[in-house]
Amino acid sequence: MGSWWRGAPCHLELLLAVILVGVVNRSDGGVTSGFVRKVEKTIDMPLDSDIFRVPPGYNAPQQVHITQGNLDGTAMIISWVTEDEPGSSEVLYGTDEDKLELSAEGKYTRYKFYNYTSGYIHHCTIRHLKYDTEYYYAVGIGHTVRKFWFTTPPAVGPDVPYTFGLIGDLGQSYDSNVTLTHYESNPKAQTVLFLGDLSYADNYPNHDNVRWDTWGRFIERSTAYQPWIWTAGNHEIDFAPNLGETVPFKPYRHRYHVPYRSSSSSSPFWYSIKRASAYIIVLASYSAYGKYTPQYKWLEAELPKVNRSETPWLIVLMHAPWYNSYNYHYMEGESMRVMYEPWFVKYKVDVVFAGHVHAYERSYRVSNIAYDIVNGKCEPVPDESAPVYITVGDGGNLEGLATNMTEPQPSYSAFRESSFGHAVFEIKNQTHAYYTWHRNQDGNAVAADSLWFYNSYWKTANEASAM
Ligand SMILES: [Fe+2]
């Protein structure tokens, strides 16, 4: 052996250190994952992909999707599109698959966007549903009938287990398809909380709205069977004055209805629902939220209404994250954070989910609400009354991953990784929930990040009563 071997122990230590740094890069903050992902470009599936297949039959309903239809989960909005003629807006439904005894009549709408004219977009709300019951429903009555099913949530109550999936910024690339398939492989997830940026049609020339249709057909395999709770993102704005399109959110508003009136909201972009043991507030990053605006006044009145004895879990959805340490969309959520963060701490929001940044990140419980212009207290600090902030903008759209992070990792950031994936929030009971994040490269059973949540409201209440 020559001199190389005599120096080997030193080399080995160095090598070991390099490997460890490669696995996890620790800093003042939490963990920046060193997971190495593929580097191929993320591209959309072609228009003739089988994923976008039009269902056979004359005027067959397509793009079928459902969402909660009222405040407490006893109604469902059923939506679909017909292309040849309006056809029927009726939904037949019932609990016996072979005998759909009930019916409801919906309405249809359509819109033009530049040189595109939509199909006939039907929306029908079916009401007075029983809790925790499997329903079958049929659409396309009179032409090509298609049948689907869903399960209603358990009655609203404090100790009701329920599992939500979290998907954001999905788009319609090959990676989007992997994300959706990965999500579907989880047998527990019952409802998707969608964090905005749906089809990415606006990335195409003239915002080619055909890509809204392909997206609707792509997701139907999930959205026809379980509700997706919608949050509007920037790719839903479709504001294009150069094309003569000056009404924001036109395609989104026509296609994706939400039950905003049942939570006394004046706009479909901010609203709330109760589902099982969760109270879910959806906020609008791209509607006015300053003081005196409709969204501000609504949220100010909404938060005190949340009864944590009835719905212990308070979850907020928005598109643009408030805490984001990637060099993409940096601080875009900052002005909304300044407006609403004191309320989130006061009302002990458990968790805030956002999208927009095409990566994954989870914060510690922090707040940054002490600043008064002159006191210099303008940094996030640990705060047990504050929510955990989680960015799940990693659905896999054609814009690709956000890979560039601010360095060093800020102290508020607990875990970050630039990979496509989805998350799951599994409520066990009034006090505990188990949260996991699943990167697309792993099998369903693998959680790349996980956290036990101890309910913020009841944790504090229990601590107070123990004193
Ligand atoms: Fe976005």
From TrEMBL:
Residues 1-29 form the signal peptide. It catalyses: a phosphate monoester + H2O = an alcohol + phosphate. This is Purple acid phosphatase. Belongs to the metallophosphoesterase superfamily. Purple acid phosphatase family. GO terms for molecular function: acid phosphatase activity; metal ion binding. Residues 386-445 form the Purple acid phosphatase C-terminal domain. GO terms for biological process: cellular response to phosphate starvation. It comes from the Eukaryota. The lineage of its organism: Eukaryota, Viridiplantae, Streptophyta, Embryophyta, Tracheophyta. GO terms for cellular component: plant-type cell wall. Residues 163-360 form the Calcineurin-like phosphoesterase domain. Its EC number is 3.1.3.2. Pfam families: Metallophos, Metallophos_C, Pur_ac_phosph_N. Residues 61-152 form the Purple acid phosphatase N-terminal domain. The keyword Hydrolase applies. Transmembrane segments: none annotated. Keywords: Glycoprotein, Hydrolase, Iron, Metal-binding, Signal, Zinc.
